[in-house]
Amino acid sequence: MRKLNRWLLLLALSLMATTGSTQKTPRAPAAPKPAKLSPEGERWVAQTLKQMSLDEKIGQLFAVWAYGSFLSTESQDYKDLLRDVEEKHIGTFAIQTQGSPLGVEYSQVYPTAILVNTLQKHAKVPLLIGADFERGTSMRVEEGASFPHAMAVGATNRPEDAYTMGKITALEGKAVGVPWIFAPENTPLGKKVPEATAFDYLKTLAISRLYLDNIDHIQSSWLTPGIKICQVGLQFGADDVGSILIEENVVFAAGVRNRTNEEELRRIISDAGYIPAQRDTLYLSYVLK
């Protein structure tokens, strides 16, 4: 038996070596070309914008979280989502996970698709549906494909692997109603969209606090705007500054170099006239230090 196992092992190694030496490396896919709207598409955009009220245009600026699970049409969560679409005219929903006593609960595949289709039917303007699928759909949805960090894929120096990873993620995301992952700095779109200013960011915070009266907490970010704008944001309706990041590679790759620590976050909150406190993910408990 040991002799047979030895021969089988040698045969397997031989086949692997043969396969590795004869397999051709697939060519990297060509860079995508910028999408261009058809004349019909251009007319639809112009007509839609002309017919939209100011409230509808403001609603299109915002994105809110949505957890993909079976919801009773009588449940408050379901009614809140419909209110976001029909009354608030929210333009984007991001599929998320949620915390529970048992740990992280991921959105479910079929319920997510049903929920997205339902919200689309109630929307006057087609909704944008997004999700953080950086390492595959399994980051937010049960039973999705899981991949290594982008840094690990890049370390293989095989563009075809990155393309395959993106294609599988896109196909799975589309199946549950998430048609795209928005990363403008790394796409042709990022070269066409004007960069937001600090004024734009603070104005968005202020409008969010006035308009989204059904959302208890609004966060002022330090990662992309910078620590000083984050502090000023506390005077524009925000009551949260997020947290420190152990590792962040996405916007870092796009040229953002902002970094901070707990001591600095506590200082900018105190200097702004507020009392810093550490919270949990669901804003249910707070710890003063």
Structure, described:
This protein folds into two domains: 53-182, Glycoside hydrolase, family 3, N-terminal domain (TIM Barrel); 198-287, no CATH class. Helix content is 43%, strand content 8%. The chain has helices spanning 2-22, 39-51, 54-59, 76-86, 109-122, 150-155, 159-175, 198-211, 227-233, 250-253, 262-271; strands spanning 63-67, 92-96, 98-100, 103-105, 128-131, 278-279, 286-287. The strands form three sheets. It has a three-stranded parallel beta sheet, with no helix packed on it. Strands 3-4 form a two-stranded antiparallel ribbon. Strand 3 (98-100) and strand 4 (103-105) form a beta hairpin.
Short description:
The chain is mostly helical and about 290 residues long.
